[in-house]
Amino acid sequence: MFEWNGRGLSIGDLHVTAPIVQGGMGVGISGYRLAAAVANEGGIGVISAVGLGYMGKTLEDEGLKALAKAGTEVRNITAMRQEVRRARALTRGVIGVNIMVAITEFMEMAKAAVEEGVDVIFAGAGLPLNLPKVLTEGSHTKLVPIVSSAKAAKLIAKRWMTTYGYAPDGFVLEGPKAGGHLGFSREQIDDPDYQLEALVGPVVEEARRIGEEAGKTIPVIAGGGIFTGEDIADMLDRGASGVQMATRFVATEECDADTAFKQAYVDCKKEDIGIITSPVGLPGRALINSFLKEAKEGLRHPKNCPRHCITTCKGMEAPYCISSALINACFGKLNSGFAFIGANGYRVDRIITVHELFEELGEGFRRAQAAKNGQAVL
After folding, report:
1. Is there a domain that residue 378 lies in?
2. Which burial class, exposed, middle or buried, applies to 298 when counting CB atoms under 10 A from its CB (0-12, 13-18, 19+)?
3. Are residue 236 and residue 274 in the same domain, yes or no?
């Protein structure tokens, strides 16, 4: 296994040999198979917690069956517990859970993740101002907010340290080239001042300042548009401790989505990727297809809102039910749904294994390091 020239990633007492966090992708795209495969390659594998209970998966663990039967927690949470346990059965590596702040059961989901002993909670799509409240005595779970600016990092840290005496264990800085929901206005998405390369320095500096105050090292993980090993080397040179990558992991054998979903990435062209206005009230980058075109024309209006899954969704006023659309897409029914995708998704040209992807990324990283040091690239 390539050792990344010693440039692994540490979050508190957690350490992985590869400075790579696999981004959380819902609904169902990054489940236990993908997370375990990434963890086995020395990265941090991440399960997306959003909407798992809506996917019709059978609960296999007897303890989880009892929970569901007793009705003591919503099925989304029980299903997340199962994904974590399944991942743990396949790896001894680091497993995280990505939880959207905007989901209805955010705090309950985070509490359950701590109970399951997940290594890291990544929290975005909103400000997780009360997240440390879920920690219990003896828990080892690290808390890493996803931010889009140094200002957001400062705000979260101030709230956590003042209220809970706890500083973030790290920050994921997600730039505007990411897929999915974006923490930027439409005007900012293409503004040079808001690109990842411009944002990473100020966030690294803010994390350093917070860390000095709190007496801990706070790594910054840069994401959004990271595609090659050379991109990884560039972000580390700019001060990031690691990178978050999501789009690259879709077109892998181990990705939990249907093959048709993965093939849509392979087949897409640059002009197929666009910015949409999501029913949850945020701009998002997606693969534009017939479903989204019909939704824009008002032809996909939901008949009801059975789930009330996202606090910011307007329900029956929405152009379509986003959870249903994403679930359909995960199962390969792209005529009834759509796929989120990063700005560089059109560069995906084949479906490979997670191991092959890590080998490719490692080789690109090695080339970049050799070029930087004036060495011949073999």
Report:
1. no
2. exposed
3. no
∠ Cα 278 283 286 (to 5°): 75
Q: How far apart, in whole angstroms, are the C-alpha atoms of residue 307 and residue 199?
A: 36
Domain CATH code at residue 181: 3.20.20.70
Q: Helix 32-40 and helix 354-372: axis angle, to 10°?
A: 40
Q: Taking the complete model, does pTM exceed 0.85, yes or no?
A: yes
Q: What are phi and psi of 46, to 5 degrees?
A: -130, 130
Q: Dihedral angle at the C-alpha atoms of 29, 331, 297, 299, nearest 10 degrees?
A: -140
Distance from the Cα of residue 29 to its chain's centroid: 10
Tally DSSP H helices, then E strands, for the chain: 13, 14
pLDDT digits (tens, 9 = 90+) for 258-308: 999 999 999 999 999 999 988 877 889 999 999 999 888 776 666 665 656
Query: Rounded CA gap, 370 and 378, in Å?
Result: 9
Q: How many domains does the chain contain in total? A: 2
Q: Looking at this protein, which amino acid is placed at residue 347?
A: R
What is the rounded CA–CA span in Å between residue 62 and residue 267? 41
Domain of residue 303 covers 261-345
Let me know the angle formed at the C-alpha of 25 by 235 and 223, rounded to the nearest 5 degrees: 10
HSE-CB at 152 with a 13 A cutoff on CA atoms is 21
Instruction: Report the alpha-carbon distance of residue 210 to residue 224 in Å, rounded.
Output: 23
Q: What distance in Å separates the CA atoms of residue 207 and residue 284, rounded to the nearest whole number? A: 27
Long-range contacts of 259-263 (CB under 8 A, 24+ apart): 259/332, 259/351, 260/332, 260/334, 261/29, 261/329, 261/330, 261/332, 261/334, 261/339, 262/351, 263/351
